[in-house]
Amino acid sequence: MNFLATAERFQFFSFSHWVVLVLVAGVFLWLHAAGKEDPDCDRACRQRKGLGLVLLVCYPLALAVRWSLNGASPYLTWANALPMHLCDWAAIAGGIALLTGKPLFAELTYFWALAGTLQGLLTPSLYHDFPHPIYFTFFLLHGSVVLAGLYLPLTLKWRPRPGARRRVILWTHVYGAMAVFVNQVGGRQVNYGFLREKPAGSLLEWMGDWPWYILWMMALVVFLAWLLFLPFDRQAKRREDLDGSETAIS
Fold first, then answer.
1. What is the phi/psi pair of residue 132, to 5°?
2. Which residues contact 162 (CB under 8 A, 6 or more apart)?
């Protein structure tokens, strides 16, 4: 395969990286414009469900691509074969949220997309550059998750329920516990959730060595949960002041 030979090592904010970032922004503006025209129209509904299906297809597609590339070099190993990175969970949650409207999955999608996957989009833990197939599957997943995290509150006007902070913090730590278990079972080469080793160039590099950076990650989850849900707190307070009574966020 000639494209495997021509693909170079990925570099942050290279031309191929900027193309992805601009493309994600452009797709969001397109989806947002369609949804703003008439949130109940058939076109907006098809786009919402289409994005949900893309999110659910991301993992099996990445699995199939890695399987097809297996040869002299194993692209598919226990270290990447399971949907056990947080972004995988965010993609599954996003697909369910967009297809079914389940509120818990919408809350998790919003939080995981903007607290975690957005960083993965900006500072990818990625070796292969364009035009390697893994470049496409990586950015399809991360870009789609970020799109869903923005699409829910900005286009669909979704709002979290009271207690959303507690739920996303709880489920994020449930994910972390499961990732620790899978890492222990899988051996030293398995690093789901980056709980064994920090990815180069990420925010985690500023948080000290293992295990201290994990403690900082746990604190950051609480802080980001407070920060990301703060705009909804203010909206709820304004509604309460206008209505003269407490209004639940739907």
1. -65, 140
2. 248, 249
Residue 20 pLDDT exceeds 90: yes
CA 59 to chain centroid, in Å, comes to: 12
**Rounded CA gap, 62 and 133, in Å?**
9
Beta-carbon contacts of residue 213 (< 8 Å; ≥ 6 apart): 198, 204, 207
Tell me: the pLDDT tens digits for 181-224?
999 999 989 999 999 988 877 777 788 888 888 999 999 999 99
- Residue 32: count of CB within 10 angstroms of its CB: 18
Residues constituting the chain: 250
The letter for the amino acid at 21 is L
Amino acid residing at 139: F
What pTM does this model have?
A: 0.89
**The amino acid at 230:** L
Amino acid in position 6: T
